[in-house]
Design brief:
The protein is of the alpha/beta class. The protein contains eight helices and seven strands; from the N terminus they run ββββααβααααβαβα. Strands 1-2-3-5-4-6-7 form a seven-stranded mixed beta sheet, sandwiched between helices. Strand 1 and strand 2 form a beta hairpin. Helix 4 packs across helix 5. It catalyses: GTP + 4 H2O = 2,5-diamino-6-hydroxy-4-(5-phosphoribosylamino)-pyrimidine + formate + 2 phosphate + 3 H(+).
Length: 210
């Protein structure tokens, strides 16, 4: 994915239960030759939550997190999204600095309503990938170009990335970012175990705790 422009549109203080962050808002406009994603959007949005003095760190800790209303807001146990986000925030605060880039990429990029339709199919026995395919989508529509561009604008060329997803590592490396991977493994629940198995077996996520 390529963009004709990526603009920082706002920056403000954001006190949280984890600590005092700054929140930076970004908009990315797709280049004219780029097809919009499954949600039909040509303007993509993301925020960067910044903690501490990341400029003094040669390789700040980073989490690239895709929006998950059901997990992040409603504490759904179908996925590990909220647990991973909390792990990232706690790790960043414990180390004194770092950032989370939070992307508007609900349901691996297919959008909230399509994600709920996929949930409906999962209730009938399909796994997460099978449900996406049944609805006419790929298993994952994200490519992480916007986070890479945000890092470029912030002058960050090396990161310690909290992820189990090797595609995130490869995407940043393809944009010239040096990456050291930090595990994002969290304890599975009875509800999320099959979801995590699909991530490991069909998507290549680096999960050893199952």
């Amino acid at each position: 994915m390529s963009y004709s422009r990526v603009t920082k549109v706002a920056e403000a203080k954001l006190p949280t239960r984890s600590g005092d962050f700054r929140i930076l808002g970004f908009e990315g406009e797709l280049a004219p030759d780029q097809e919009p994603g499954p949600q039909g959007k040509r303007i993509e949005e993301a925020v960067a939550l910044v903690y501490g003095d990341i400029a003094s760190q040669p390789s700040p800790i980073l989490r690239i997190h895709s929006q998950c209303l059901t997990g992040d807001v409603f504490h759904s146990l179908r996925c590990d999204c909220r647990q991973q986000l909390e792990l990232a925030l706690d790790t960043i605060v414990a180390h004194g600095s770092g950032l989370v880039i939070y992307e508007e990429q609900e349901g691996r990029g297919i959008g909230l309503m399509a994600k709920l339709r996929a949930y409906e199919l999962q209730d009938q026995g399909l796994d997460t990938i099978e449900a996406n395919v049944r609805l006419g989508y790929r298993s994952d529509h994200r490519d992480f170009s916007l986070p890479a561009e945000i890092l470029r604008q912030m002058g960050i060329r090396s990161v310690r990335l909290i992820t189990n997803n090797p595609e995130k590592v490869a995407a940043l490396q393809a944009h010239g970012v040096q990456v050291e991977r930090l595990s994002a493994e969290v304890a599975p629940t009875l509800n999320s175990e099959s979801y995590l198995q699909v991530k490991r077996e069909k998507m290549g996520h680096l999960i050893s705790s199952l």
